[in-house]
Amino acid sequence: MLSKRVIVCLDVKNKKTTKGVKFAGNVDVGDPVEMGEQYYHDGADELVFYDITASAENRPIDIDMVRSVAQRVFIPFSVGGGLRTLEDMREVLLAGAEKVSVNSLAVKNPTVISEGARAFGRQCIVLGMDALRVEPTATIPSGYEVVVRGGRERTGLDAVAWAQRAEELGAGEICLNSIDADGTKSGYELTITSRVSSAVGIPVIASGGAGTPEHLREVLTEGRADAALIASMVHYGTYSIAQIKDHLASAGIRVRR
Amino acid sequence: MRESLAILDYGAGNLTSVAHAVRHLGCEPTITRDPDVVRAAERVIFPGVGAAGASMDNLRRFGLDRALRELQASGRPLLGICIGCQVALNGSEEDGGVDCLGLVPGDVKLFRFPAGITRKVPHMGWNEVAFTGNHPVFAGIPPASQFYFVHSYFPVPADDSVVRGTTTYGGVRFAAAMARDNLALVQFHAEKSGPPGLRLLRNFLDWKPQAA
Predict the structure, then answer these.
(1) Second-level CATH architecture of B5-206
(2) Which of A28, A82, A119, B75 qualifies as a FRET site for A97, CA 20 to 30 Å off?
(3) From CA A36, how far away is CA B27, in angstroms rounded?
(4) Which residues of B touch A120 (CB under 8 A)?
């Protein structure tokens, strides 16, 4: 039986890991390569590195960092932020990342998903999406709209419809972040996670809002997520990965230990 | 002289991870698509992600299909990972049906689940491999160890005696690890499977298959 995955997200800015509250007021918490290696040894199932400033600063992601991680971490990791072309993706994958994550780039140019899937295989392409709760309308029937630029810009896309479209285009996985829950530590947004996960046949990683191990249990059961992304709850030492997995296992969820 | 390890680069995705993992174990690999380098290597890792059709096309284009058959006959150790494992069989259902290398009799089939069971495909993530027997490549791996899988198709060897480890997904039990003579084949990504994966790679680097 497949285990539910606990994935640690490292937001990287100026070669440091940061964790922001709703994408504002980031504080440095450490070296991403060292932190990644530590989480690998602590039992993380997967890592995600987001270069959160690369795309705003219109520069490519730090390839040396990707290579250093790949030399020391022997679990899958994905890389996002600042990827603009297939060549950018290729460079990251050749440096040793297992997957690339595209978010606003895919909204602007959805063919990047299909081209990436054709060139590197579906399993390499993660669609990252940020969903914001809105009043349901004819164009946003789910009541969750896709937003970009850290939530600053609305796209007019319905989150469920966009997830299905991304799957059709060839995304291998969806990382769904709730802008409403992100940074609150009050729990994942179960409603949209469950709706997206039920609407697609590819794995869904829940993101945004994790504060306690119980939050992961909720999203991996009621939220129907295949994996849960965590950041600050481990970055600041509030919980260890072992504690989180113990909690999940005691609730009958299969995890890797 | 140190034994040479070749890692096949046939345009089928990420072999960097395999190279990093064996370097971590103290072995400097040669990454190559030259069939003569493969012929000269003491041992070979045949990695790969992606689709069976494109992989076979590339293997034939570079002349690596023949080099791999010669390697099998030579008795030198070969480790196939993921697509490298699948194309070692006779054929795959992927891409409308693909003729493969036929190093091990059997086929590769798409996941189809028993009635009433729905599961996401690809089978992506960590799952347990139940190893059987005491093959040197799969020795010393703690029971119930989990490995990282990413695949939509799975190997179905014709002869059960090659099966060295099984995994179950959605009620489908499949051969996750196989071995025959000088070949070891794994459906999972040993190079991305943490300590048990590194142990398996270490075992492979130390493996001296008995002459067939």
Answers:
(1) 3-Layer(aba) Sandwich (3.40)
(2) A28
(3) 23
(4) 13, 49-50
